[in-house]
Design brief:
This protein is of the alpha/beta class. It folds into two domains: 81 residues, no CATH class; 242 residues, no CATH class.
């Protein structure tokens, strides 16, 4: 390993379950606890809030949870980032609801769930509304149809090709065109109940066809700016409560410092992402010194994955862990700066 490779390793891309750099022990019992809680309460269509600092490992944790054997046995897992379908800096409850529908359709097809005509018509209707409002360059075909007053019927590709088609033709356009997103929101602003009912009908049909409950792991909602986060999680929280599915939301931890979080927490069960405790509380004897020692050892192992011992002295390792305070993002920063 060279110093250039050390620096390149600090890209903070979420790790997959089979990544050799992943140390599952960093998540301790939390992964087991979440898997057990979701599996036992799956029939209740529960919602979970997962607050923590940026860079604490939430995305990697969701990758592990999506790969958990019990979770995959009991649920059709729909794991996605809002970055894949929109822009965290311009994201509303309306964007969230139609993202649920599009992403569950994609996941169901990829998991070989049988899509009947009713479900296909539902996909066609939802995508048709979105495409009507997507601002694209006018083609000759569109101009001619506009002159004649005719409306071009949306034609979906063959069912196995729909996920790829959605990614290529729909998600990309939604990401690029803020004007399109605004027009879709305006369309549904006066039809909120219609949108909610259509989404729930579709979710119910997919769950029935799959023979499993639905579990959405929605990543990067914690990246939404604070003002917009309050708008989504507080003002429009009913739209996050009502979908007929189990949903885990990542949450900007800054929201939890506000008195308004009491209202937000009614969405579902709070599951604070655990920080790694690396020192005892001086005001209270800690009986679990072994856990603190284990956490430090795990952080040292993680640091070794980023930076071999030949590039960092032992006393610097200890100092970096102290500076990080048990947060992997804060541990990364000084080493990345040193490598640079």
């Amino acid at each position: 390993m060279t110093i250039e490779e050390v620096y390149q390793d600090f890209d903070m891309v979420p790790l997959t379950p089979d990544d050799p750099k992943l140390h599952r022990d960093l998540f301790g019992e939390f992964l087991k606890e979440m898997s057990r809680a979701i599996s036992l309460q799956g029939r209740k269509n529960k919602k979970y809030l997962l607050p923590e600092h940026k860079g604490a490992g939430k995305s990697t944790f969701l990758n592990l949870l999506a790969d958990d054997k019990d979770i995959r046995t009991n649920f059709l897992v729909v794991h996605y980032s809002i970055n894949a379908i929109g822009n965290p800096y311009d994201f509303t409850h309306c964007d969230f609801l139609y993202s649920l529908a599009l992403k569950v359709a994609e996941a169901a097809i990829e998991e070989k769930v049988k899509i009947n005509k009713r479900m296909l018509d539902q996909i066609k209707r939802m995508v048709g509304i979105i495409q009507e409002h997507i601002q694209e360059e006018s083609t000759e075909e569109h101009r001619e149809s506009a002159k004649g007053g005719a409306k071009i019927e949306l034609r979906l590709p063959q069912i196995p090709m729909i996920p790829e088609w959605l990614r290529a033709k729909v998600y990309g356009a939604l990401q690029l065109s803020s004007e399109s997103r605004k027009k879709i929101r305006e369309f549904y602003r006066i039809r909120p109940q219609e949108l909610m009912n259509n989404i729930n009908d579709f979710l119910t049909d997919i769950a029935h066809a799959a023979g499993k409950r639905l579990l959405f792991l929605v990543d990067d909602m914690d990246k939404i700016p604070l003002k917009e986060s309050f708008e989504l999680f507080e003002t429009n929280r009913k739209f996050l409560e009502k979908p007929q599915a189990n949903i885990l939301y990542t949450v900007n931890i800054a929201l939890t410092s506000s008195s308004r979080y009491a209202r937000i927490s009614t969405i579902g069960e709070n599951r604070y992402f655990p920080s790694l405790k690396i020192r005892p509380n001086p005001s209270r004897p800690d009986p679990d010194d072994r856990k603190i020692t284990k956490n430090r050892q795990n952080l040292e192992k993680l640091l070794e994955c980023w930076c071999l011992g030949e590039f960092i002295q032992p006393e610097a390792v200890s100092m970096v862990i102290e500076m990080g305070g048990g947060n992997t993002e804060q541990e990364r920063i000084p080493v990345e700066s040193g490598a640079y």
